Amino acid sequence: MNGEDIKVRLDKWLWAARFYKTRAIASEAVSGGRVHLAGRRVKPSRSVKIGDCFEVRRGYECYEVIVTGLSERRGPADAAQALYRETESSVEKRASEAEKRRLAIMQRPRSESRPDKKQRRQIRQFIRKS
């Protein structure tokens, strides 16, 4: 089927491109404002066209993707990745933010083990006084 002949809803395309696990979750994400087209919120029923540039937020990650193919069916991961192309700036930004998160986790103090019974009592007593 030719990519220009079919019309695909945005929520269905996000599901087929494997950004979200179910179509319901994809629809909820679009309605919740986690998907933008040119900086503006869109509806789940919007038709996707080849060449559209979407910003998709998923957890801590923000993808800026350009639509290169259309599909109404969810296929293998290789086929799903052929439906879009991520911009270079998006790849660099995601990598730098992931590195920042990794460094922040390493700076947090970690105890060698869980608190024992006496330490738990001291913690509870300290919290009650505060």
N-to-C SSE series? EHHEEEEEHEHH
Rounded to the nearest angstrom, the distance between the terminal CA atoms is 67 Å
Strand content: 15-25%
Structural class: alpha+beta
**What's the overall geometry?**
elongated
Gyration radius, in Å: 21 Å
The CATH H-level homologous superfamily: RNA-binding S4 domain
Tell me, rounded to a whole number, the average pLDDT: 92
Name the CATH class: Alpha Beta
Quick tags:
130 residues, Structural Genomics Hypothetical 15.5 Kd Protein In mrcA-pckA Intergenic Region, Chain A, two-stranded antiparallel sheet, 7 strands, elongated
Task: Report what the structure shows.
This protein has 130 residues and is α+β, with helices and mostly antiparallel strands. It has a single domain, classed as Structural Genomics Hypothetical 15.5 Kd Protein In mrcA-pckA Intergenic Region, Chain A. A hairpin with a 2-residue loop joins β5 and β6. The longest helix has 20 residues.
